[in-house]
Write a structure and sequence with these properties.
Pfam family, one: cNMP_binding
Helix content: 40-55%
Organism: Bizionia argentinensis JUB59
Largest sheet: 4 strands, antiparallel
Order of helices and strands: HEEEEEEEEHHHHHEE
Number of domains: 2
CATH architecture of the largest domain: Sandwich
Shape: globular
Keywords: DNA-binding, Transcription, Transcription regulation
CATH topology of the largest domain: Jelly Rolls
Strand content: 25-35%
Protein name: Crp/Fnr family transcriptional regulator
GO molecular function: DNA binding; DNA-binding transcription factor activity
Number of helices: 6
Length: about 200
C-alpha cells in the first residue's frame, strides 16, 4: 500500500507479533497506522454470547484499522495475528503528515476504504434479510471479484472463517456449501471450494 521507503521516511517502526497476539483491542483509542509487512491477521468482534464475528482478514501489503484515525475515535473491533506477523506502525500525526505530502497515496487509501465500506454494506444486508445460500455466495463472490480473475477462483477461507464472516453456524455453512455444489453454483474438489 504505502511504499516502505516512505513509511520509514516518516519514522514508522517495524514490530514483530507472534501468532495469536493482539495488535489492538476493541474500544482502544486509535493512535497508529498499521501496515503488514509479513503475515496475516483478522479483525473481529465478540457477541454477548461469546461468538466471534469476523470483520475481515488482512495480509502482507495491506493496512488495517484506519477509519477511527480520521475521527479521533476508538477501534470498533479487535485485531489478532493468525500467523506470526511483522507490522509497520506509524504514529497518527506522522500518518496525516504523510497523506498531506502524498496526495496520490491519500487517494489510493480513500479508494481502499470505500471498497471496505461497500463490503460492509453488502454483509449487513446479507445478515439481515437473506438465506444462508445467498449469504455465502455473496461473500465468496465478493472476494473473487476483488481478485479481478475470470478463472476458477479457489476460496482460501475455512468453513469456520466463512461461518464467522456470515453469522451462520459452521454446520449450516457445511450443509449449505454441499447444497450449492449440488445446485452447480460452486465446485468442491478435495474439500476445497471453487467458484
Amino acid at each position: 500500500m504505502i511504499p516502505i521507503a516512505i513509511l520509514e521516511k516518516y519514522n514508522a517502526t517495524l514490530k514483530t507479533y507472534s501468532k495469536g497476539e493482539v495488535v489492538f483491542r476493541e474500544n482502544e483509542l486509535a493512535q497508529f497506522y498499521f501496515q503488514i509487512k509479513m503475515g496475516k491477521l483478522k479483525m473481529f468482534n465478540h457477541s454477548v454470547d461469546g461468538k466471534a464475528f469476523i470483520q475481515g482478514f488482512f495480509e502482507a501489503g495491506k493496512s488495517f484499522g484506519e477509519p477511527p484515525l480520521f475521527q479521533d475515535s476508538h477501534y470498533p473491533a479487535c485485531s489478532q495475528c493468525i500467523t506470526d506477523c511483522e507490522i509497520y506502525i506509524l504514529a497518527k500525526e506522522s500518518f496525516f503528515e504523510l497523506l498531506a505530502n502524498h496526495p496520490k497515496l491519500h487517494l489510493a487509501l480513500t479508494k481502499i476504504l470505500c471498497k471496505r465500506m461497500i463490503y460492509k454494506a453488502k454483509i449487513i444486508q446479507e445478515l439481515s434479510i437473506h438465506p444462508p445460500e445467498h449469504r455465502i455466495l455473496t461473500l465468496l463472490n465478493h472476494f473473487k471479484e476483488a481478485t479481478n480473475t475470470t478463472e476458477l477462483y479457489e476460496v482460501k477461507f475455512t468453513r469456520q472463517q466463512i461461518s464467522d464472516m456470515t453469522g451462520l453456524r459452521v454446520e449450516t455453512v457445511i450443509r449449505t456449501i454441499k447444497q450449492l455444489e449440488k445446485d452447480e453454483k460452486l465446485i468442491l474438489k478435495r474439500r476445497k471450494v471453487f467458484l
